[in-house]
Write a structure and sequence with these properties.
Elements (H helix, E strand, L loop, with lengths): L2 E8 L5 E8 L8 E6 L4 E7 L2
Antiparallel strand pairs: 1-2, 1-4, 3-4
Amino acid sequence: MAHRKVGLECSVCGSRNYSVNVSAAQQNQRLALKKFCKHCQKVTLHRQTR
């Protein structure tokens, strides 16, 4: 199974804080996770960048 590395961007401040590996089966949808943003100092929604 092929994996691809994608970045996660904070939906509040726009900084790219995380990178994750996504499998080929999951690439049809954009990933959205709640993660801690070190710039906002709180848990925010982080979305996959393209």
